[in-house]
């Protein structure tokens, strides 16, 4: 007779060398890319509002920034999307000036 509990949940994973990917629905490669993008966005944001607006303009032209040179084209586009989303909040609130 087959123990149904062994086919579900963590009991099926005990003794298994396979990682438990059930907690994260994002593939590992995509999660790593997301961390690279997130790290880059944080680094760029530390430069301040004016610099971020300038960086957005550069990225919109399809150019790369020193901070994004190691990223793929797809990751560069993700950085641009993230920066635009962040700056849209500041733009609407008026809390970030461009001087």
How would you portray this structure in words?
By secondary structure, this protein is mainly α. It has one domain. It is 52% helix and 0% strand. It contains 3 helices and no strands. α1 packs across α3 and α2 packs across α3.
Number of strands: 0
Q: Helices and strands, in N-to-C order?
A: HHH
Largest sheet: none
Mean pLDDT: 76
- Total helical segments: 3
Structural class: mainly alpha
How far the N terminus sits from the C terminus, by CA atoms, comes to 74 Å
Shape: globular
Poorly predicted sequence stretches spanning 5 or more consecutive residues: 2-14, 19-24
How many separate domains? 1
> Rg to the nearest angstrom?
21 Å
Strand fraction equals under 5%
Give the fraction of residues assigned to helices.
40-55%
Supply database-style keywords.
single chain; 99 residues; mainly alpha; 3 helices; 52% helix; disordered N terminus
Summarize the structure.
With 99 residues, the chain is an all-alpha fold. The protein contains 3 helices and no strands.
Please outline the helices and strands.
Layout: H1 28-45, H2 49-60, H3 73-93
């Amino acid at each position: 007779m087959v123990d149904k509990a062994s086919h579900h949940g963590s009991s099926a994973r005990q003794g298994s060398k396979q990682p438990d990917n059930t907690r994260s629905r994002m593939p590992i490669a995509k999660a790593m890319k997301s961390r690279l993008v997130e790290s880059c966005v944080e680094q760029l944001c530390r430069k301040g509002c004016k610099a971020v607006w300038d960086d957005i303009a550069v990225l919109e032209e399809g150019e790369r920034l020193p901070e994004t040179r190691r990223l793929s084209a797809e990751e560069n586009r993700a950085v641009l999307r993230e920066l635009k989303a962040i700056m849209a909040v500041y733009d609407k609130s008026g809390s970030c000036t461009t001087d």
